[in-house]
Amino acid sequence: MTKLTFIAHDGTYFDVDAENGSTVMENAIRNAVPGIEAECGGACACATCHVYVDEAWTAEVGEPEAMEEDMLDFAYEVQPNSRLSCQIKVRDALDGLVVRVPERQG
Amino acid sequence: MTGTIRTDVLIVGAGPIGLFAVFELGLFDMKCHLIDILDRPGGQCAELYPEKPIYDIPGWPSISAQGLVDKLLEQIAPFKPDFTYNRMVSSLEKLEDGSFRVTTDENEVFEAKVVVIAAGGGSFQPKRPPIPGIEPYEGKSVFYSVRRMEDFRGHDLVIVGGGDSALDWTLNLQPVAKSVTLVHRRPEFRAAPDSVNKMYAMQEMKQLEFRVGQVAGLAGADGQLSSATIKGGPEGDIEVPCTRMLPFFGLTMKLGPIAEWGLNLHENLIPVDTEKFQTSVPGIFAVGDINWYPGKLKLILSGFHEVALMAQAAKRIISPGERIVFQYTTSSTSLQKKLGVLEAS
Q: Does the complex come out with an ipTM higher than 0.90?
């Protein structure tokens, strides 16, 4: 199991155990992290699972692909560390990953 | 509301496919009534891109979307369809005699033997952009579509977005507006490369301004904008004059109450067969963008084909046992009489 931490917009921490191969979004939904809507169910077809990757983790998580960049156009308050959480796959190297949930989704 | 409105075929959606359905059904003497959530016919063609040209209508190398709608209305005029606008269908109920009772959100009641769903992407709404405090300006100085280009004449226009709508309107409104500023959060665009190149060329000639960043705030009074603040760009926070804004952040389409009609659904689309374009409920058909079948293409021309086949099946329901004769409008005197192009003898 890989540990992930979501920080909700009100500052609440959600520490969850995630299976490798699942997406960060799926783990947010499974653990009812507030502020992750994931309207499209993980098809990279909306921008409602937007998260900010903690600065310490941006290099390991990596950059969004072109399609994800296109969808990020529809997100709220996009920052250089913005990602769509449905496009981040959980793996060993992400053990301890911290992501923040934005004020709102779109 | 007074009484039930009875018709042969009730068509949900008055976009190009709903309109052409009237023609194909009319050739078989079926009377149609159309219901639409918009205030006029044409669907997305009329609402979202009326002045944009369409290039893949057979026989029309180029026709504006509104032009196509106008031509379709002219083409179906002989069949005298009835229209009910500004209404969303709500419930559907199957009656004992096999016909359907459909109720609208304003409680009008329709009864028809056949229901044709031509609702496109469903009832659609532009997505509100993530700009704080935008609500009071909506419909007054912030618009989500261009109804008339003249409404933008002489204005300091800010267009937000990176897709085709944003780029096309940047290019088309540049000659009309006093100034045009295009704002997009990055220098890459989803829009067609040709439009992007044209936009950069116009920026080069100082005909418009392109700024990387996001609109973070609006200033104005009584719904009238005066300026917009753009942040996140290389220059830091800047304020640009803005008396009209066009944000293009995509659309959300919702199937709406049709989802509750007991039809099988496939990812918010309605599966149909490709012989009759009938849904899982006999007597209810789905045509155009709202239907799904293997190989489906969301093209207007595909919808035209679908309604021609659907009309044959609808005729069998409305006039059971009657022989259906396949005829050409070019040579059939009976079809020509219906179209009013041949004097009744």
A: no
pLDDT of residue A41: 67
Domain with CATH 3.50.50.60 in chain B: 5-124+252-339, 128-249
How many A-B residue pairs are in contact by the CB < 8 A criterion? 28
Determine the distance in angstroms separating the CA of A88 from the nearest CA of chain B, rounded to an integer: 21
A106 belongs to a structural domain: no
Mean pLDDT score, A37-60: 85
The helix (run of H) or strand (run of E) holding residue A19 is: none
Write out pLDDT tens, residues B11-38.
999 999 999 999 999 999 999 999 998 8
**Number of residues assigned to chain B:** 345
Partnered with residue B111 across adjacent β-strands are B6, B101
pLDDT tens per residue, range B231-250 = 988 888 999 999 999 999 87
3-class secondary structure, B256: helix
Residues 6 or more apart whose Cβ sits within 8 Å of residue B239: B219, B227, B228, B229, B230
Largest CA distance in chain B: 78
Give the closest-approach CA distance of A3 to chain B in angstroms: 31
Q: Would you tell me how many other CB atoms lie within 10 Å of the CB of residue B161? A: 25
- Which chain B residue is nearest to residue A70, measuring alpha carbons? B190
